Amino acid sequence: MLQALQQELDKRKVDGLMRQRRLLDSPQAEHIVANNQAFLSFCSNDYLGLANHPKLIAAMQEAAGLSGVGSGASNLITGHHRYHDKLEKRLAQFVEMPAALLFSAGYMANIGVLGALAGREDAIFADKLNHACLNDGGYYSLADFKRFSHNDVQALETLLKASTAKHKLIAVDAVFSMDGDIAPLAEYLALCERYDAYLYVDDAHGFGVLGQHGQGSLNHLGLKSPRLIMMATLGKAAGVAGAFVAGEQVVVDYLIQKANSYVYSTPAPPALSATLLASVDLIAQGDALRNHLQTLIATLKQHLQVSRWQLMPSITAVQPLLVGNNYEALALSEHLQAQGILVPAIRQPTVPVNTSRLRISLSAAHRVEDVIRLADTINQAETVVQAA
Predict the structure, then answer these.
(1) 205 catalytic residue (yes or no)
(2) 260, 115 contact by CB (below 8 A)
């Protein structure tokens, strides 16, 4: 087995698909120290720049003193702390849903929800560009797992019309993490009404960024319905860690009983929930941060002038630069790194073959000057970087 593993790793190197970890020696911010070097970073999902916010640091320090550093037991034993409960109620109120449930990570939330709500007699319908955790949740659920072309409403309707499943669940990203585009959620919700289905929305990259006061993609699109269930992560725009699922009270009550990744795991430390209570307040009051983020997006589009590579259409903080070739995407990322700028090269299987790209993640912590520097450096690189 070890020999086979090494052969697979060697092949990944040859194919330009080997991934490397960077060792971070600073707080997450727009300027970081990684591998003992200072960089201007466009790698983080910390879209509002809250990960190192002094109010959140103070909240965590105070809460750790009051609640300790560990939860000690699963939620259904003695692990459900008052801080957890307060945060669930606050999140439900913030996204205007009847109830919410905390998970330790978005991956755990998606696997838990899909496995609990869909089984052998049911069907899950998923966009082909969904995040890996939605795919894994669909496969693990034992439901009939159907995938449709990206944002293809007609293809989804064809699948729904042909389905004889007992229960139907559409599971999609709201903002696609590698493309930055927004799913046609209004059209999907209309299909739910027509074919008696429910819509599960992963809003990891919309929560805190889109919608009135950062309430997320559903609010951004003006969508409300008892057929909606949303998930959002708390380690991106919220700046901390974890995830939550929100929906009808009966859905949350059922997940508490049946979502294995919730029932059989120890919750995140209570101090994180106390910190996130402060984070939700900052998000709610963060219109100026979101306006600045939109200014940065407009600045990037204005100053980036390339012909061989293409900035994909996105109004979100995720701004992908489509390169195509694995080696060329790596070479461009390495060229930027040599100039003191970090932008990750994203390759298969995270994205489809021949669509390798640089994933530019903007944060409200960036300055306009930072984005202009990035754009100018990429513009200059087009005449230097070539595919291997």
Answers:
(1) yes
(2) yes
